[in-house]
Design a protein that fits this description.
five-stranded mixed sheet; alpha+beta; two-stranded antiparallel sheet
């Protein structure tokens, strides 16, 4: 097993060796000898969120009377598409309207990572972030927008490089009230070309 990851590294190494053999490669040739080990460590790193408890990032909640939108834009993230085991990479925009408590700013980025570093689909990832913040921060509203490029459609299949998928999850006032929804989405995309 991987030390802290809980990932069975030797098992992944065996599977990668089998894949190399199945595609007609020699896993003993110089360039491929360490590939199974490297791939096992890569998966352990890319999927570290599978054993991450996102609530660990809630230790920096502060009581504040602030009642305007809090927004962190352009949070880089990467995830692994569960359909093809290929990466999708993008930016998250996360906003909430506090109801008496705010979260340390870096924690928003850590929460995104916690859910992104798993086998995922973008739609579920977007919902998980929004639902987690609603449940644990108890804000008046949450808005999460993810923009990502999926290698499973840019370098294989339909092969449309440059195509970007956008998903959104709105909760509370941002879902109910058109003016609030418009304000938060405008802030998320302000100053964009």
């Amino acid at each position: 097993m991987g030390e802290k990851s809980g990932v069975d590294l030797p098992r992944i190494q065996k599977a990668v060796r089998e894949i190399l053999l199945a595609v007609g490669e020699d896993p003993e040739r110089e360039g491929l000898k360490d590939t199974p080990r490297r791939v096992s460590r890569m998966y352990s790193e890319l999927l570290a969120g599978m054993r991450d408890d996102a609530s660990e990032h809630l230790k920096s909640i502060f009581h504040e009377k602030y009642d305007e939108i809090v927004l962190l834009r352009d949070i880089p993230f990467y995830s692994v598409c569960e359909h093809h085991l290929m990466p999708f990479i993008g930016k998250a925009h996360v906003a909430y309207l506090p109801a008496g408590q705010v979260l340390g700013v870096s924690k928003l980025a850590r929460i995104v990572d916690s859910f992104a570093r798993r086998l995922q689909v973008q739609e579920r990832l977007t919902d998980q972030i929004a639902d987690f913040l609603m449940k644990n921060l108890h804000p008046t509203g949450v808005a999460v927008v993810l923009e990502a490029r999926h290698s499973c459609m840019t370098i294989r299949g339909i092969q449309k490089p440059g195509a970007s998928m956008v998903t959104s999850s709105l909760r509370g006032i941002f879902k109910r009230d058109p003016r609030s929804r418009s304000e938060v989405l405008t802030l998320m995309h302000a100053d964009r070309a």
